[in-house]
What we know:
Blueprint: E1 3-14, E2 18-21, H1 22-26, H2 33-40, E3 44-47, H3 54-69, E4 78-82, H4 93-101, E5 107-111, H5 117-131, E6 136-144, H6 154-157, E7 162-174, E8 182-190, E9 198-200, E10 213-215, H7 217-239, E11 248-251, H8 256-266, H9 277-280, H10 287-297, E12 306-313, E13 317-324
Parallel strand pairs: 4-5, 4-6, 11-12
Antiparallel strand pairs: 1-7, 2-3, 6-7, 8-13, 9-10, 12-13
Helix pairs in contact: 3-4, 7-8
Oxa(dethia)-CoA binds at residues 31, 35-36, 39-40, 115, 154-155, 158, 217-218, 220-221, 224, 254-255, 258, 282, 312-313.
Amino acid sequence: MAVIRSVIRGVGAYLPKRILTNADMAKIVDTDDAWITERTGIKARHIAADDEKTSDLGIAAARQALIRSGIDPVEIDLVICATATPDRTFPATAVRIQSELGVTKGAAFDIQAVCSGFVFAMATADNFLKTGQFKRALVIGAETFSRILDWSDRTTCVLFGDGAGAVVLEAQPQKGAREDRGILATTLRSDGRYGDLLYVDGGPGSTKTVGHLRMNGREVFRHAVQKISGVIEETLVTTGYAADEIDLYVPHQANARILDGIARKLGVGPEKIMITLSHHGNTSAASIPLALNQAYEEHRLKEGSLVLMEAMGGGFTWGAVLARW
Length: 325
Ligand code: UT7
């Protein structure tokens, strides 16, 4: 039976120019390259310039995705920006991205699911495209986490960085068969009982300040492998694929040890897992499209490749997207 699927037409990314290496971090807090590398796999992170906002990063990534898609901005009718570090409390970062790109049709809004934001945004766009409400969507993950870090807290400030990535999705008729291109399944989960394990200690409705990121890293780690593996397995069961049939896993980039744990649990080889965090750290909602972009540039995504994206973040929120390139 013919179906409408959201086909990925283009991908793009942007990282700010300024780089802080682990050696630079050791000048800021009591840490060293050996600890950060061994515990996380991170070697460097990018930091937005003073005059660069989250929307600027998102615009740069979106421009590249649009060029690669061959789709004109005037044909886009949905812009979703996943971010936990918006330019302003309101309006949404997505509306500035929309206007700067010259998109005038349809709707633009932000999604807040922290590190799972890109997965939540892809699922939202996919559902709008499948129902026929919109035709072409720009889905962006953009963050300036450097602005909400406590730069005196070594347990968090070494982990995060700034960046953005974007994809262009287009509603296309497909056969409803196994070889269909586009998004094949999405799985989203949240559990607010874990809200105090990873949060920001400020906000307009509570402290009237922006606040700083706080995390119980050990506890988050403990949940991450189990919850992410669970949502991947659910997505595979829904679609009838085995873990080793996936050509490339493009996970949220938080910690290389979490990614190793997931690979072991699923029984898939490290060559199937895209790991890019060494050069940009944890960029929250931007990390999946940044990794997807690197996979594209390294020619690891061919037409027909099965790609599984997954994430877990504050909330907790977690989820997965299975797509055929
Ligand atoms: O993107 C959202 C999801 N986030 C995540 O997935 C993050 C999940 N958590 C993690 O990635 C890891 O838990 C961390 C990388 C945050 C920490 O690694 P860990 O192996 O769990 O270390 P730990 O928190 O158990 O700390 C071990 C030791 C502590 O010292 P003591 O108490 O054993 O003396 C920390 O004080 O390491 C110390 N430590 C550091 N030492 C040097 C913590 N941060 C640092 C640091 N440099 N930057």
